[in-house]
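Q: I'm writing a short explainer about Methionine adenosyltransferase 2 subunit beta for a general audience and would like to include a description of its predicted shape. Could you first generate the structure from this sequence?
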Amino acid sequence: MFLSAAAGSGSVASTTLRRLSVLIAVSNDEFATDEAAPIVGDSDLAAQLGAGSADDEHSCLRTIGMSTIVTGASGLLGRAVLAALSVDDSFRNVQGWTYSRPGSVQVNLTDGAAVRSALTKAQAKFIVHCAAIRRPDEIKNDEQLAENLNVRSNEFFCDYLKEVPDGFLLYISTDYVFDGKNPPYGSDDTPNAINKYGQQKIAAEKFILETLPGKSAILRVPILYGPVEYLAEGAVDEVLKALLNNPPNKPIQLDHYHLRYPTHVKDIASAIALILRKRLEAPGDIKGIYQWRADEQLTKYDMAIIMAEQLGLPHEHYVANTSAPSGGDSAARPHNCCMKTDRLHELGAKIAISFPEGIRDLTEHVK
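A: Of course. Here's the predicted structure. Afterward I'll give you a sentence or two in plain language.
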């Protein structure tokens, strides 16, 4: 109605609306305000639209170009989320933020002024906060740095989004918020983390939901795997690296105590895209805590056997260690953090990739 009624009211308005309709049709990012920052999307829109846009036309187009931000976009999950959102017509101006990777929007998430400036330039509306220091042992070595990224960075996002109509923060959390003693855990069960990583995630969840009620959601995820840039980028491919570095036929101890639900990053990214689409359709319905995971319950020993079979490696010398850890220098891990996933199932989310199928992304990496 708006387009057809206004299109005949003068050449500038007519030209503007024709170009606006093209922008909507191709879900483009050409009109982002931060020209120095690379944005994911169509780079050829200017040629499609033609040269000579008037300043007022450019401004009109830019007002509908609110961005979707993916933090941690160089990481295992962040790359998958960025890829999924960038090909989804529901989202415009998808920006991948990293700390220092060339070709991305580089933002120090522990610097409030830098975060605010980048958000304002991007006209950010949706933020998917994937960035984190997630390895419990790394956090143990530098708790303050992890606190700044895992918890305090959310203050900057919440302060900004309070001022954005229909703004929305989706924070990626972990199943490590639970102690692993009484699974399965619902999204409304009281968390009780046994390591600093889980405790920081609990603090972040609480802050976000209290500070940005109705404009935020939490997505808890388990151990992840997928296409890696190097072995040991994630916890699952660390197992593969250990297998490959182990001398032939030398016995190798593998954890067969902790129960995990390894989930492919593409399945997590699909769930994230679904949450955001549902938020666009019915903003008031999408809020609170969601949980997602694959159905397969595996230990690291189980994962190792599957990897070895994929690679054609002998595995008779793999030793299943069923003993509970007895302390030491490593951070504590929960025994079984199986999460209930009913809220996302009700939205229509599905797990598409089994572990034996998905692990090919790792085994092909070393062939």
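A: For your explainer, you could say: Confidence is low (pLDDT under 50) at residues 1-64.
Q: Perfect, that's easy to follow.
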